[in-house]
Amino acid sequence: MTEHPEQSSDRRPLAKRPVFWLGLVAALLAILVALVVGMLIGGATGTAPTPSPTSVDRPTPAAQTPTAVVTPPAPDAAPIPDDCTGIYTRDWQGELDLALNPTWTDEPESGVRYASDDVGLQTMLEGTTRLTCIWATPEGGSDVGITTNIAALSEVQQEETRAALNALGYSCYEELEGTRCVVEQEGEVGAFGESHFLRSGVWIATAWVNAAPDGYTHDIVAAIFG
Fold it and tell me: pTM here?
């Protein structure tokens, strides 16, 4: 069959057709115009890109370490001697006719280790006593003797002890630059009592039974404080 010329021309590839190139150029121009218009609109509104957040170095606060509330021992106003001979300025043995620290008094069950019958004062003495001096009969317990504890107290402990002595009804008064609290009673065994002297964190606690030599506590204060 014979082909007509116009039918043959319509079957040319698109790339060889003028209409194809005109459409492509028009499309590219439209895209270019859209880009230019968008840039102009963005500049007119003054919209700026949002900056990304940046981390700022800040000083790290120091860690707050909780400290335990602890009452430190107060420094002694005068050094507490290492042995009982150092708490006296003179020899009391002849006057007392007793032995100093006989072996049996070292036993916890001796019942003469602490210079008070009050449980609260005994507890305080157990934790604070630095030196214990006991005048007693060498053979064992009797109805005559003296127990003296030299204890080191913090300021808080000293105030607590003074308040406890007042609350227990001891007679307290100022003496030798400190506070002295005393009590004396009579019982089946005879006379007995206690003397407690507080000064600058030093506690001189003495309990006695039928043996209360005049000037005993004063002599200890003179030996320790000078």
Answer: 0.67
